[in-house]
Amino acid sequence: MKYFRFSSLMVLMLISFFVEAKETLSETAELGKAQFNVCLACHSQALNPAKAPPMFGIQNRYKRQHGSQAAFVSAIGSFVESPTLEAALMKRPVRKLGLMPAFPLGDEVLNNIATYLYETTFDPPCDHWRQALKSPGKDGHRRQVQGNYDKFCK
Ligand code: HEC
To answer: Which of 48, 61, 66, 138 is the most buried (most CB within 10 A)?
Structure first.
């Protein structure tokens, strides 16, 4: 009896572990997650050299700029539909990689993708930052990358 209680407790603990490990997304964000695959061609943080800034930093920057989810979603949607230098919040990647091509995917798909980008939690791009720290760069930017690396990757 004692053994039985112990093993069912273990099973419960295991179940709650997996439930917690799986991210809970809204239905809209779940759709966006699949549609986001097209973006990973450039925004995958595994790419070396990078073709685009990792989404970890983009999400952070857009959340700082736009207080509400609605404003975040709308800003991402309109940038992706027609990127411009003026609208870009991150000027450095534009200088280094050029402006991203337009993806006029339609309001619904853009809304799904942007909702996913708002809700999900991205892993910190430690390999990307490690790579960036190896190449020479301006001191201010280096310090920022080093700061992120120390905070999230150590
Ligand atoms: C062909 C490569 C490529 C693809 C595919 C791509 N991007 Fe980008 N993206 C870039 C590059 C390069 C930048 C950095 C320069 C810039 O901001 O335009 C960027 C920057 C961004 C930014 C930040 C803009 C800012 O304010 O500075 C957002 C948001 C973004 N991409 C979203 C997306 C989404 C969503 C998709 C998929 C629908 C996507 N990208 C697909 C190359 C790409």
So the answer is: 66
